[in-house]
């Protein structure tokens, strides 16, 4: 492993991890506040990418960067107001189910409107090309833009939650909703705002993730399970945990796909003869890049066995 | 008191009182009807499509019922049930291949049990991690485990057969009473027999102490801990039992199709389907998932033939069901049975007719628009003309859109009017029933 590979993978991993964090932060906020696991969260991410694709054709990328998340946030708030709130009285499982149904619907509608294949959602000219060259390899501007937006978002969400009046109300409603309601705040509206805000964050991630990676109907499903892993590994309802877990999983996935070592090569390196006749060869011959897709889930299982409340979590249920 | 004097040795125990147990006629009747339906249905619907669909329904019922042990009885929302049906299928199909090669002496009749044991084994293995948590976290962990197994299916082509899957031939060994299990109808009766036995076994499970405490764990885990039960272990045991029956369903699926593919049988879409239809059928009643299993096959075989937009319809139906009738179809049936029991169904009939009629009008308009949209999106090469319910519609013309929109809006408006009327009437009927129940108690 040379320095060039290490640096580039590190940067790619961090930018992917930050994108995961943009998604998981909204999910965590919604979950810790309302107890609702928004199954359709990555569907809003996908919608963000598609909205931005259409809007950037009409008004250009930079206005779309603002407009698409706003539109997604509005959709999310409307969904909360007219569907989720109605189900709230039935308990958490129906709430999860209603978002599950929504994810089905959004997928079908996206395929209906934009077709079943990828759409050519390209980078704007300002983000094309490399930002800098390191060890002879170029690091693209788009990925550094993801990092920049994610960090700005992290800071502004943190400032919003800790330094503003509405942030304090949100924090209070998180712990004691009845008391906050008794003090005269409209807690259902706060819930609606939080849900819409969380969806807007997912939409923002979609706007910048969609053109850096691919915009296709499968994009919600492919990242969906990963961010659930992030939320469980980080600890349910812990923003800092989600941040840590996103970075870890982003790095693990990026490094793993580039490493072609398998258990067999490791054993051979240690001087143990392994050949296709050895017992368990199908497992031994798998390279790390082949098992990369399952690493997050293995990580999840290990965390659950050894630290059931997650990395930085406090809840023990 | 008379009992204690006649049998003093039994008076010491708490079972000393005499319990009159009549033959539960209703129960015998229902189970006999179920058995007769299983036997008679393929004689009524004799086409090969119908027999295949009935076979699929047979194991879909087992799978949905096994899923409901988790969802309805244990309050565990699993997103990875296909893991246990799928792995059951794979082990079953490998067992069939080994048996056909003469390496394992297993007759075909017992292959579903092999699948069941496999499902149970994987439930023991994976359930230990999964059932550590409950509620939302449980759901996420099952999702993770489901993805784990689904990705693994593509990593081990030696076991899962890669893209092409594993195939087999179910006709092997000696025939039993002339049953070779070659013809589809013989396979149907095998599936039907398993369906009946498994349904009965799962119903019996609901009455066992474990089944009862599982309901308590669903409703109030804290109190269950207080009376000295380990909730995690109760969930774990229930999970294992659900895995067993899921594996049986998977084994039957392997026998029915003679092919299992890793990309299809363990993936998340399938798990989602089991969840969706179990819920649609009704998770709060034991018989709900039976309706769910039937709907699952009807939707995925017939509806998908009928319309390309079937997933959209399914998603919408599911969303409305969760919002307005979280008990599923079964709860709707039970509510109306209650009304019928008090003889109040007849006055509601006109309102029902009006509701259904207006809903059909609205549905007609909406379906026309959806179908036109799909036609424009998918069959653009075929021109704007399309068939809709026997009529030819031009999907590109504004007039057909206006027509469909007008029908939809009219239907919706009328439906809303009828709905308000109906809700009033329904409330009145419910009040009357409450009244009668109270009067019955007072007498």
Q: Give the radius of gyration of chain B.
A: 25 Å
Summarize the helix and strand pattern of chain B as letters: HHHHHHHHEHHHHEHHHHHHEEH
Number of strands of chain B: 4
Low-pLDDT windows of residues of chain A: none
CATH class of the largest domain in chain B: Mainly Alpha
Domain unit count of chain B: 2
Alpha carbon gap, first and last residue of chain A: 41 Å
Summed over residues and divided by their number, the pLDDT of chain A gives a mean of 83
Contiguous helical run count of chain A: 14
Order of strands across the biggest sheet of chain B?
1-2
Structural class of chain A: mainly alpha
Overall 3D geometry of chain A? Answer: globular
In terms of DSSP E residues, the strand content of chain A is under 5%
CATH level-two architecture of the largest domain in chain B: Orthogonal Bundle
Query: Average pLDDT across residues of chain B?
Result: 84
Q: Structural class, from secondary structure content of chain B?
A: mainly alpha
Architecture overview:
The complex is a heterodimer of chains A (317) and B (443). With 317 residues, chain A is mostly helical. In chain A, 73% of the residues lie in helices and 3% in strands. In chain A, strands 1-2 form a two-stranded antiparallel sheet. Chain B is mainly α. Chain B folds into two domains: 45-329, ABC transporter involved in vitamin B12 uptake, BtuC, CATH 1.10.3470; 342-442, no CATH class. Helix content of chain B is 75%, strand content 3%. Chain B is built from 19 helices and four strands. In chain B, the strands form two sheets. A two-stranded antiparallel sheet of chain B has the order 1-2. A two-stranded antiparallel ribbon of chain B has the order 3-4. In chain B, helix 4 (48-73) crosses helix 15 (288-306).
